[in-house]
From TrEMBL:
Name listed for the protein in its UniProt record: Amino acid transporter
GO biological process: dicarboxylic acid transport
Organism expressing this protein natively: Mucor velutinosus
Coiled coil: none
Highest taxon of the lineage: Eukaryota
UniProt GO cellular component terms: plasma membrane
Residue ranges crossing the lipid bilayer per the database entry: 72-91, 103-125, 137-163, 202-225, 246-268, 288-307
Primary site of residence: membrane
């Protein structure tokens, strides 16, 4: 047996020695075959060298570098550009891509209820037993939302009177849809909105994505947990904390599909509407985007200065949810990423989980501005000169009717149709607006998300918790988990034990007792928005005063 094995080994070595080193790579001679002529070998080696060393390997290295180093924002922008090109030059193919865009929104919608519920429960019940604190936060938040949306309505009215987007527009179109929408809007009443806030069944509210109802149930559940015994409270906190962590990992997985889904959604929108429609109502579209830009510059940025929100850091943190909302024209698709980035930016869980979902019903800055502008557009298109008192009355009506209807499909058009009916404005303006509504929806939806993220930061400042001790403790925990996960993967790759120390060197006290005196959050732009945290020790206290 040993002799047979020895013969096999000798045969193998003998065959290897017979290989001709001048043959092209990977081409051992077959038994009984003759080597290729020398010129053929030289040409084959040259072709392989050019292909492998000059073309293939540099391409793979460059692509790998881009895939590893470029941010999710970069790929979303690439997806948007590709989607616009497909929709413009191949509109039929662009329309066929719509299911891919719908799939992205559906995947985001799947996790909204467990994400909002779990983060809100952990945020409220996990930081004390003060039920009154929740009520005070709710009152302050709603007051802030009302003030900002009032400014948005005012900007829309002023810009509509200055630019006059409806002058010279010839009205046409079928008004039968508008009458049905007006009747549907008339059914939206204050008690109907109250039923959305306080649902009959939590699971019905969760199924229908009634965000405000989910927030109410989570807040009441959290208050009940505060009153429960310690054992029950800790048990439910562990469950919801694990659920929250898993949901954010779920978001990270979905965000990898975002460039494809967003590109497909834009391709379908451009392929269906085309770019020619911009010429017909270009003044209205331009007026809306100019008004939104002025609202950000004149209202929101001064609020950042007054609240001492780091402007450049905020724009960096809000870039991804803003792009997602703009390209998908869906506030829901940006909700998980907005919550994740605001947590990383400096807002504690308790505020982020409460303020941002509430803002989806009470802080629709872009939508309220659009409604004011579109109402005056309808009057101008019908050559109706509205007095100032009537315009202020429209402003008050929109302030009340635009709240709490975010879960209703095409809610802004419903509110607009009801306003047109109430003030006897021409119906024919609504079908024209519907023709470009998808284009305007992108702008107003992105400002809705922008305003909600800013509202979260402002309320954190008002409560004194922006990058405060509560957030620092949460950030230490998040960093500890990230490092533990990274070391676990490293140990698995090295074939070592899966036992993980908190700091990677067996020193757990470094994380348990180190204070975050000066925290710098480093974002890498990918789905996990916090890459690392640099800690600069605080200067020693001055004992001699």
């Amino acid at each position: 047996m040993l002799q047979g094995l020895k013969n096999k080994l000798n045969f193998s070595v003998k065959n290897n020695e017979e290989l001709d080193s001048n043959l092209p790579y990977g081409m051992p001679p077959e038994e009984g075959s003759k080597p290729y002529p020398r010129p053929v070998q030289v040409v084959a080696n040259a072709i392989f060298f050019v292909w492998n060393n000059i073309l293939l390997q540099p391409f793979l290295r460059t692509w790998g570098f881009l895939a590893a180093r470029t941010s999710l924002t970069f790929w979303i922008i690439v997806g948007m550009a590709v989607g616009i090109l497909i929709g413009n030059f191949a509109p039929e193919a662009g329309v066929q891509l719509k299911p891919l865009g719908d799939a992205f929104i559906r995947m985001i919608t799947i996790i909204e209820t467990p994400l909002i519920f779990s983060t809100l429960v952990v945020g409220i019940a996990g930081h004390g037993d003060d039920v009154g604190k929740v009520g005070r936060l709710a009152v302050k938040t709603i007051i802030y939302f009302e003030v900002v949306t009032t400014f948005a309505l005012a900007v829309g009215l002023i810009m509509a009177n200055l630019i006059k987007p409806g002058q010279g527009v010839v009205l046409f179109g079928d008004t039968s849809q508008v009458e049905g929408m007006a009747q549907q809007e008339s059914s939206i009443t204050w008690y109907g909105e109250m039923e959305m806030i306080i649902p009959k069944n939590f699971f019905v509210a969760a199924t229908n994505n009634q965000i405000l109802g989910v927030v109410f149930c989570a807040a009441m559940f959290s208050c009940a947990m505060m009153k429960a015994d310690k054992k029950s409270k800790e048990f439910m906190l562990r469950i919801n904390d694990s659920m929250s962590m898993i949901m954010f990992k779920f978001v990270a997985l979905i965000m990898n599909y975002a460039p494809i889904g967003i590109g497909a959604a834009l391709a379908a929108a451009v392929g269906k509407n085309g770019v020619d429609i911009l010429a017909n109502l270009g003044k209205l579209i331009g007026s809306l985007y100019a008004s939104l830009a002025i609202f950000v510059l004149v209202i929101l940025i001064p609020i950042m200065f007054m609240a001492r929100v780091p402007i450049f850091g905020f724009f960096k943190a809000v870039a991804q949810p803003w792009l997602i909302a703009f390209s998908s024209a869906s506030s829901e698709s940006a909700l998980p990423k907005a919550m994740e980035n605001m947590r990383a930016f400096g807002c504690p869980n308790s505020l982020t989980a409460f303020v941002i979902p509430c803002g989806y019903s009470f802080n629709l800055d872009g939508t309220t501005l659009y409604l004011a502008l579109a109402s005056i557009f309808a009057a101008q298109a019908g050559n109706i000169n509205l007095p100032l008192a009537t315009q202020l009355s429209i402003m008050g009506t929109l302030m009340l009717s635009s709240k709490g209807v975010a879960a209703i499909p095409r809610a802004s058009l419903l509110i607009l149709a009801g306003t047109v009916t109430q003030y006897n404005l021409p119906y024919e303006a609504i079908p024209m607006i519907m023709g470009v509504d998808a284009i305007m929806d992108m702008g107003r939806t992105s400002i809705n998300v922008f305003g909600n993220c800013l509202g979260c930061c402002v309320m954190s400042r008002i409560e004194g918790s922006f990058r405060g001790m509560e957030w620092r403790e949460e950030e230490i925990d998040r960093r500890r988990l990230r490092l533990m996960e990274a070391e676990r993967h490293q140990r698995q790759n090295d074939g070592l034990s899966e036992e993980v120390s908190f700091d990677g060197h067996g020193n757990t006290e470094k994380f348990e007792h180190q204070e975050l005196d000066d925290v710098v959050v480093v974002h890498d732009g990918r789905a996990d928005s916090v890459n690392s945290i640099e800690i600069t020790p605080a200067p020693p206290a001055n004992k001699h005063r």
